[in-house]
Design brief:
The chain has a single domain, classed as Ybab, Chain: A (2-Layer Sandwich). The chain is built from 4 helices and 3 strands; from the N terminus they run H-E-E-E-H-H-H. Strands 1-2-3 form a 3-stranded antiparallel beta sheet. Helix 2 runs antiparallel to helix 4. The longest helix has 29 residues. It starts with 6 loop residues before the first helix and ends with a helix.
Length: 109
């Protein structure tokens, strides 16, 4: 077991979840708590409208947060929480994430 202040424990807390749009022009990164910690904007976004960029950032932020929640869900299960208690928290499964990603980008992936 790692000590709370150890590098291994710190690395687990600082895990980053990145999601990019299909052409990699926009990306959003979240930490394990689902808080946005990074944003990637490629040069090609200058050709897009502000409205397009705002929509793209929001959809990617939702997906990045969901990706972090999938891992939080799995950690709860791995740490012995009963499945019905995990379900009550409403955290998504990997399949839920894949469906959400497909709903946003369809066959562009």
């Amino acid at each position: 077991m790692d000590a709370v202040g150890s590098p291994a424990a710190s690395a687990r807390r600082q895990r980053i979840f990145e999601v990019f749009n299909p052409d990699y022009s926009v990306g959003v990164a979240c930490d394990i708590a689902g808080i946005v910690v990074g944003l990637h904007l490629g040069e090609e976004v200058a050709e897009q409208s502000d409205a397009w960029l705002a929509i793209e950032i929001l959809r990617l932020a939702r997906l990045a947060r969901m990706k972090s929640e999938v891992v939080r869900r799995q950690r709860l299960l791995d740490n012995g929480m009963l499945p019905h208690a995990v379900e009550a928290r409403g955290l998504p499964t990997e399949a839920d994430y894949r469906r959400a990603e497909a709903a946003e980008y369809g066959n562009q992936l």
